[in-house]
Write a structure and sequence with these properties.
single chain; 279 residues; alpha/beta; 2-enoyl-CoA Hydratase, Chain A, domain 1; six-stranded mixed sheet; three-stranded mixed sheet; 10 helices; globular
Length: 279
């Protein structure tokens, strides 16, 4: 299927989603918010891959939300809808909720999602990156919570997620100033997993990680993603109770046996794929 904002390829258990509008810094236009969740949900629902990699094209990963969207909410015609002004708050909330859901799909997806960042990761690009499982960057990359610079408070997902990734004081500094955090600093504070010299080296490195993930049991990797997300959002005891119940119903001795046998025989393991989601 052809998309306006993305190219999608599937190979070796890896789904590679590439933002393909470098001429506009891969900004997030209306089509972006429709296409991304559709792509991710289809890959997940049909168990088409074992891991997802999101990368970009051109000098910048993502320039943030297409500013033309801010002017698309024209005032209602007073004669046609005399209560239009009173409804605008809820209409805006509905729009923001749909945008939030478009990125939350990365967390809700059963597959690990890796993001490869080159150049600028700006505004909404940070919302996207923080919703992924892991982030990788080129040496020239930077992130900026740019909404502050244009008189907005970031609302699509940056704050609920980034405060769980890096220290709160650093988040506040980034948010209050809107400054650029370079890749080296992002690495030092743990926002990105690794920094590469250039875009080509980064994609090679990220694909190596993706292949290593894809070689593991998908059922076990999915359990890891669920367990880590649950532990992040709950107390230690809640996390202990949850993983015990999870493994009581989802531990697969046959998968363990196959992993050990494949290792002994020095061959790729024949693991079960995730089941397709029910429609």
């Amino acid at each position: 299927m052809a998309y306006q904002c993305f190219d999608v390829s599937l190979a070796d258990g890896i789904a590679h989603i590439v933002m393909n509008r470098p001429e506009v810094r891969n900004n997030m236009n209306p089509a972006f918010w429709e296409e991304l969740p559709q792509i991710v949900r289809e890959i997940d629902a049909d168990a088409q891959a074992r891991v997802i990699v999101i990368s970009s094209t051109g000098p910048h990963f993502c320039g943030g939300i297409d500013i033309s969207m801010f002017g698309s909410d024209a005032p209602d015609d007073a004669a046609a809808n005399p209560h239009g002004k009173r409804q605008r708050g809820l209409k805006f909330l509905d729009t923001v909720k749909r945008m939030q859901d478009s990125l939350s799909v990365l967390e809700q997806c059963r597959l690990p999602v890796l993001v490869a960042i080159q150049g600028g990761c700006i505004g909404g690009g940070v919302d996207l990156a923080t919703a992924a499982d892991m982030r990788y960057a080129t040496a020239d990359a930077f992130v900026t919570i740019y909404e502050t610079k244009i008189g907005m408070t970031a609302d699509v997902g940056t704050f609920p997620r980034i405060v769980k990734l890096i220290p709160e004081g650093i988040v506040r500094e980034l948010a209050y100033t809107g400054r650029r955090m370079p890749a080296t600093e992002a690495l030092n504070v743990g926002l990105v997993n690794r920094v590469f010299d250039d875009h080509e080296a980064m994609l090679d490195g990220v694909m190596d990680v993706a292949r290593e993930i894809a070689a593991n049991a998908p059922l076990a990797v999915h359990g890891c993603k669920r367990a880590i997300s649950y532990a992040r959002d709950h107390s230690t005891q809640d996390g202990l109770d949850w993983i015990g119940l999870w493994n009581a119903s989802n531990l697969h001795p046959a998968e363990i046996q196959e992993a050990m046998q494949a290792r002994a025989e020095k061959r790729p393991a024949d693991f079960a794929d995730l089941p397709k989601r029910r429609a």
